[in-house]
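Problem statement: downstream parser choked on a complex file, so we are re-checking the raw output for the nicotinamide-adenine-dinucleotide run. The parser issue turned out to be on our end (a line-ending mismatch), but while we're here, posting the original submission so the record is complete.
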Amino acid sequence: MPQRFTGKVVALTAAASGIGLSAVRKLASEGAVISASDLSIDALKEALGPLDLSEDRLMMRQCDVTDMQQVRAFIDDTVERFGQLDILVNNAGLGALADVTELEEDAWHKVIAVTLDSVFYACRAAMPHLVRTQGAVVNTASISGLFGDNGLFAYNAAKGGVVNLTRALAVDYARDNVRVNAVCPGLTATPRTAWMMEDAKIKAEYDSRLPMGRPGTPDEMADAIAFLASSEASYITGVNLPVDGGLTAATNQPQFLRMRSD
Ligand SMILES: NC(=O)c1ccc[n+]([C@@H]2O[C@H](COP(=O)([O-])OP(=O)(O)OC[C@H]3O[C@@H](n4cnc5c(N)ncnc54)[C@H](O)[C@@H]3O)[C@@H](O)[C@H]2O)c1
């Protein structure tokens, strides 16, 4: 196992489940010091306990990413505890399924707050520390930030914001040697999407549309996050990397060859 993150301090949001939890595991397994936060401290403790990391390698904090003061306190506590910050992983995000005429104002603001405001808050607090270490930001965006979905307009708007924020901050901080990139997961098998996989109709739709014929795993997203965070990506900044089994490579036209062989 390569040890790309020995001596590196990584702060992650929404780290108790799914992609965030896999990112913690991956980065820790390659030597990183982990500062993990989540809305639920109990869920975080339950999820990260089994990793058995020593106290000098792990800090856990409750942090609601929609609250700028909490996000700043999380970043400040990380630096106070470990002396530096090398990598920030902004992983929180929230969707809402609705037509534009139906979505309540509060629900719209919540999607934007969890998904987009959170990235601004964390980057605002972390950037001076990342400049000091010539560090990196990796955002968990989405393919939903690259294109439109049916009934997910608020999420599309918020993730689209994350995608372009990623580019803009990459440009602003390139001369400081702080790289800013994002992974854009396609369908990923996490607790959030379990209901989709349990719905036979939705699963059949995905089966026909996903070129690789399966959802991604949280570990596959974590591998991409780790790559973008690592020095192997030293000349990559401002990139929104689809990790989607080919979904965004396709036009979604009928699958002629598969139909012919059926
Ligand atoms: N699962 C997918 O198919 C998929 C696809 C594309 C993008 N994404 C993105 O990946 C990221 C992680 O998704 P996941 O599927 O692993 O989710 P998940 O549901 O498994 O985990 C989400 C975590 O976020 C935490 N959280 C929720 N609100 C929060 C808040 N206000 N402050 C802090 N933490 C909060 C939850 O407690 C939970 O631990 C999200 O940004 C999501 O939009 C997921």
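For whoever reads this later: Strands lie at 9-12, 33-38, 58-62, 87-90, 136-140, 179-185, 240-243.
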